[in-house]
Amino acid sequence: MLRLSIPVRQALSRLTLPVMLLVSLGLVLIGRADQGLAGRLRISINDWLAPAYQAVSAPLSALARSGGTLGDLFRLEADNARLRVENDELRRWQSVALGLEAQNEALKSQLHYVPTPTPNFFTARVVADLDGVYARSVLVATPDGAGNVTGAIAMDGRGLVGRVVESGDRSARVLLITDLNSRIPVSIGTGNERALMIGNNDGTPALKYWSPGQPPADGAMVLTSAVGGIFPPGLPVGFVHYDSDNQPVVVPLAQLDQLVVLRLFDYGPAAQPSLSKPVPRVPGQHR
Amino acid sequence: MALNLRRNPGFWQRLDIASRMTFPAASILFGILVLGLPTILPMQGALRPAFVLVSVFFWSLYRPSSLPAPVLALLGLCLDLVGVSPLGVWPVILLLLHALVVQSRRLLVSQGFFMVWLAFIVIAAAACWADWAVQSLLMLRLLPIDASLFQWAVTIGLYPILAAGLIRAHRGAAAPELA
Questions:
Q1: Residues of chain B neighbouring A201 (CB-CB closer than 8 A)
Q2: What's the CA gap between A92 and B169, in Å, rounded?
Q3: CATH architecture of the domain with range A30-74+116-268
Q4: Is the Cβ pair B86, A25 closer than 8 Å?
Q5: Contact B76, B147 (CB under 8 A)
Q6: B24 lies within 8 A of chain A by CB
Q7: Interface pTM (ipTM) of the complex?
Q8: Over residues A120-140, mean pLDDT
Q9: Residue B148 forms contact with A (CB below 8 Å)
Q10: Which of A188, A269, A181 has its CA nearest to residue A223?
Q11: Which end of chain B has less neighbouring CB within 10 Å, N or C?
Q12: Among all residues of chain B, which has the CA nearest to that of A28?
């Protein structure tokens, strides 16, 4: 160990704070200049943390589940009655759906409809909550061999959750639809009216840029739209709702506050049309 | 106890002293990581910086030597990486907080719990506002001010709860003079 006289040591200890402050300010500048640096650092730390989080979160969720089981025992009868009613209702809808499916198939065969390819998907467990005060994202552990899944669409059992923005060897960060930086083109209702769903840091993202004079109808279904080429069309997102300021917002179908397992759909570059390529014009078409 | 420190300590005792000295930093790092576990508590996004602010304030006030500047900068960096904020924001805030508390230490350390809490309320407001302002500036957009106010409320609400545990740690597990 270096032997320094007491005044020198005191001077050094007084200097560390300003020096570290300067280093930190430099870090702010570097992070601002190289936007990818924070992402790369985050991926490496997340890849390292994901297995540990996974090891801890599995028994935690099991514990939460078994706690639920104990509570469920006391509600068995009421739950059974409710489920029976719900089952009857669902059976009715099932017959409607089967009828519609048959009709849909018949119509498609008449139209020589080319089906869209089913994308690859895999399930991934949410291992960490990467929420900040001004950010909404979760960390998922990706299975071996998943590769780089940046851009993959994340859904839970009910609806759209978000999109993978950073992806490493073992983990991926999913930006939720409620994050401030989330901008998702959507189509509303049966008329497929276009709008942009903008995350605002709370549970219900705002709807903006709908066509003037055609405000989104309250309760209308919100689906993703292929405009912009990032999302495939027709994924369920949520319902239109008017908030207390009478502004249209989307109530997401996905349970964003308790995500456990996500399905990541990798549509790949083939599904994303290049924006730079001009749309080919059909000869003889006049507009 | 003072006599203990003066004589040459053995290996185990030195290990004990070292672990007691690193207790504050280790507990903050542990807290940052544990609060990342999914859905163990509501409003975890606000709770993580709140936990760090309370801990850094407390240890800067009562045991400043156990939180050296490089360690604080690293803890801030961890918070930036786990909490998805622009790089370097939290190191700057934590270092400034530390400097401020160490400067006003003589005034604060002799005060009772409520006066210290009052001081923390003011300092936490400054820290939360700085976080909001710097992040707004770096992202070139006005971030929601209510999220920042919520963060402040969670932080000052957490102080009495956490301080009860920290005071015990300060007198027990983290006291090098007991080694």
A1: 143-144, 147
A2: 62
A3: Beta Barrel (2.40)
A4: no
A5: no
A6: no
A7: 0.81
A8: 85
A9: yes
A10: A188
A11: N
A12: B88
Are B68 and A27 inside 8 Å of each other by CB?
A: no
Of B39, B40, B86, the CB nearest to A38: B86
pLDDT in tens, B102-154: 998 888 888 888 999 999 999 999 999 999 999 999 888 888 888 899 999 99
* Token digits of residue A63: 């514990």
DSSP A156-220: -SSSEEEEEEEE-SSEEEEEETTSTT-EEEEEETTTTEEEEEE--SSSS-EEE-PPTT-PPPTT-
With contacts defined as CB-CB under 8 Å, which chain B residues touch A56?
Answer: 37
**Which pTM does this prediction carry?**
0.81
A237 close to A253: Cβ distance less than 8 angstroms:
yes
Query: Looking at CA atoms only, how far is residue B129 from chain A in angstroms?
Result: 12
B126 part of contact set with chain A, CB < 8 Å? no
| Residue keyed to tokens 């801890």 | A56
List, for chain B, all residue ranges whose pLDDT scores fall below the cut of 50.
1-4
The C-alpha of B12 sits at a distance from chain A's nearest C-alpha, in angstroms, of 20
What is the per-residue pLDDT across A182-195, written as a single tens digit (0 to 9) for each? 999 999 988 888 99
CB-based contact, A137 to chain B, within 8 Å: yes
- Identify the residue whose tokens are 């942009």: A196
